[in-house]
Design goal:
By secondary structure, the protein is of the alpha/beta class. It folds into 3 domains: 172 residues, 3-Layer(aba) Sandwich (Rossmann fold), CATH 3.40.50.620; 98 residues, Pantoate-beta-alanine ligase, C-terminal domain (Pantoate--beta-alanine Ligase, Chain: A,domain 2, 2-Layer Sandwich), CATH 3.30.1300; 176 residues, 3-Layer(aba) Sandwich (Uracil-DNA Glycosylase, subunit E), CATH 3.40.470. A 6-stranded parallel beta sheet has the order 1-4-3-2-5-6, with helices on both faces. A 3-stranded antiparallel beta sheet has the order 7-8-9. Strands 12-11-14 form a 3-stranded parallel beta sheet. It is elongated. The N and C termini lie far apart (72 Å).
């Protein structure tokens, strides 16, 4: 392991690596090296031929700038940590060389850097981005590694790379958590047992948000309120800020979709604690969540409403539903149903203007419209004729098909108990589509369910299905739907 203390020496090292046609990884440590960087080093060694760890100072921090170099204790502690891995070089430049007395050029980050953190550390990104840009120019790495712990900083770095056409690629690694499930980072050094308990409280609060989104809750203010309740159980923790943001510009959101990030920063006395959690479905791995947040877009287009975590939560609730287990005429478990296909077939929930409610899920799965859209059985053919479309593509552009019950009913009439129990799933499905203008109800069972349990009308006020169909074979009315916020 080479210890490099001057910029020309570092530049020579980098040139030698490139001359050998080798790839170079950079792990930057602003201020001090700690255990979280070991994960980054491991990933850098795995992906690249050579790895450099850079230990530098933030020039905007006056306390650090008084010293001409990183504190010797920090360097010594960092070198001890690095003995766990074989790195090719450690770059510890002199502060006076990085920022000589006449230095006056600083990078001024833009809109993305106006993140929640900027309100607490106004000059931080100005100094950090200037330092990182200098490092990228000096080391010229192929890949730079950052921890999800520093999610906000990594987003600003990515913006800088894109705007300034840097050739370095950025890789974000999942948060490395300790045995207490707390994030390892400089602000979570846990100088005392109190600090450790505080960090655990932040972790528990974020996990509470995760639990709620997996059940379908997407209102950011409700999620944050629940998190604050959990953290309040640790009175030594004072929250600086807690937000759920979209991952591209770090702007707070009202409605959570996959890829949004829950951020929380707090303090216990003088110790600063930070943590975050990327929100997604329960079957996403940590790597997939990072890809979703760090590379994906949370919205398909400006006015689109993308299927989000509420869709995933509803899908899981329906799949696990056994409310009708005591009814022998209902074939469990729930088979084919609309929500299983919403993400693939309705990228913009606003596009659906008409919901069609059928009777029940088909006994044969291959007959379900969304599973086999190219197959037109007699029901599908009549459905297309009824709503005036020629094929599935035209149907899904404006229509959605659901059912009164999501299990198959083996009898000619669906028991009222099944209609009553399954209506909660029907209501939740209808709520997915904010632009509904009409609801088409097919058949007696779906009609009775909609009248009794969606519109809430007493049985004495409901006209018989057959009497409504006399004459033209269909009936229409304007009605306020309580489940849809009273929309008509």
């Amino acid at each position: 392991m080479s210890l490099i203390v001057s910029i020309p020496e570092m530049q020579r090292f980098s040139r030698d690596i490139r001359a050998q046609a080798k790839s170079l990884a950079l792990v930057p440590a602003l201020g001090r090296l700690d255990e979280r960087h070991l994960t980054l080093i491991h990933e850098g060694r795995r992906q690249c031929d050579a790895t450099v760890v850079a230990l530098v100072q933030d020039p905007t921090n006056p306390a650090r700038c008084e010293s001409p170099a990183p504190h010797p204790q920090n360097v010594e502690a960092g070198q001890k940590l690095l003995t766990q891995f074989t790195v090719d070089a450690v770059f510890v430049p002199q502060h006076t060389e990085m920022y000589p007395q006449a230095f006056e050029t600083f990078l001024l980050p833009g809109y993305t850097a106006a993140s929640p953190e900027a309100a607490f550390r106004p000059d931080y990104y100005r100094g950090a981005m200037t330092t990182l840009l200098k490092l990228f120019n000096i080391v010229r790495p192929d890949v730079a590694y950052f921890s999800q712990t520093d999610f906000q900083q990594a987003v600003v770095v990515r913006r800088m790379m894109q705007d300034l056409n840097l050739e370095t690629r950025l890789v974000m690694c999942p948060i490395e958590r300790g045995n207490g499930r707390t994030a390892k980072n400089p602000g979570n050094g846990h100088a005392s047992a109190e600090d450790g308990l505080g960090a655990q409280a932040l972790e528990k609060g974020l996990r509470r948000i995760q639990e709620l989104v997996h059940t379908g809750e997407t209102e950011a203010h409700k999620l944050l309120e629940e998190m604050r309740k959990v953290i309040a159980a640790a009175p030594q923790v004072q929250i600086d800020y807690a937000l759920i943001v979209e991952p591209n510009r770090l702007q707070p959101v009202d409605k959570v979709v996959s890829g949004c990030v829950a951020l929380v920063v707090a303090h216990t006395g003088s110790e600063r604690l930070t943590d975050n959690l990327i929100l997604g479905s329960a079957d996403h791995t940590e790597g997939q969540l990072i890809d979703l947040a760090f590379q994906g877009q949370p919205h398909a287009k400006v006015h689109a409403r993308v299927p989000g975590l509420e869709t995933e939560g509803l899908k899981r609730r329906i799949e696990s539903c056994r409310d009708c287990a005591a009814l022998s005429s209902i074939v469990l478990p729930p088979r084919e149903f609309l929500v299983k296909y919403v993400k693939s077939d309705y990228p913009d929930l606003n596009s659906v203007e008409v919901a069609v409610i059928g009777r029940d899920a088909p006994m044969k799965r291959e007959r379900f419209l969304y599973r086999q859209p190219a197959t037109q059985d007699p029901f599908v053919a009549e459905l297309y004729k009824l709503v005036g479309v020629k094929d599935f593509l035209e149907f899904r552009s404006r229509f959605a098909l659901t059912d009164a019950v999501r299990c198959h009913a083996s009898s000619s009439r669906i028991p009222e108990g099944a209609l009553d129990r399954c209506v909660r799933h029907l209501r939740d499905e209808l709520k997915l589509f904010p632009n509904l203008k009409a609801i088409v109800v097919l058949g007696n069972d779906a009609y009775l369910q909609f009248q009794r349990f969606v519109l809430g009308r007493p049985a004495s006020e409901i006209k018989s299905f057959d009497s409504l169909l006399k004459g033209q074979g269909w009936h229409g009315e304007a009605a306020q739907v309580p489940a849809l916020g009273g929309r008509t």
